[in-house]
Amino acid sequence: MSRRCELTGKTLQVGHNVSHANNKTKRVFRPNLQTISLASDALGQTYKLKICMSALRTVDRTGGLDAFLLKAKDAVLSTRALRLKRLIVKKASAAA
User: Fold this and answer.
1) Which candidate, 71, 81, 29, places its Cα nearest to that of 50?
2) DSSP 3-state assignment of 40?
3) Residues 68-94: pLDDT tens digits?
4) Which residues constitute the domain of residue 77?
5) CA–CA distance from 49 to each of 19, 27, 70 (Å)?
6) Is residue 84 part of a domain?
């Protein structure tokens, strides 16, 4: 799997190391990705997702995985996260 957050789409960034003499060499900024188990309240299960820690803080702030996925744009989510979002929307519409 690529080095990409499944919830925010955060990926590698490229920049320079700059020395005191102003020499520039290429370097890579990697997101802090971790495999985390997140619980879905609507589905009643936990799911393992590879997400960055800034996304985890955002999930906590928005009120859990379900609320985050419902607010997230489809273009940023991975295929696994999109599948989860569709299941949550389906479950919510069936309950209503």
Assistant:
1) 81
2) strand
3) 999 999 999 999 999 999 999 999 899
4) 13-95
5) 37, 27, 16
6) yes
CB-based contact 55:8 (threshold 8 Å): yes
Domain of residue 50, CATH code: 2.30.170.40
Residue 61 domain-assigned (yes or no): yes
In tens, the pLDDT along 12-58 reads 999 999 999 999 999 999 999 999 999 999 999 999 999 999 999 99
Q: What is the number of domains present in the chain?
A: 1
What's the number of CA atoms in the CB half-sphere (13 Å) around residue 63?
Answer: 7
Q: Is 7 part of any domain? A: no
Cβ proximity of 57 and 75 under 8 Å: no
End-to-end CA distance of the chain: 36
Strands (E), the chain: 13-18, 24-29, 33-40, 45-52
Contact 7, 72 (CB under 8 A): yes
- Judged by phi (left if over 0) then psi (alpha if -120 to 50, else beta), residue 22 lies in left
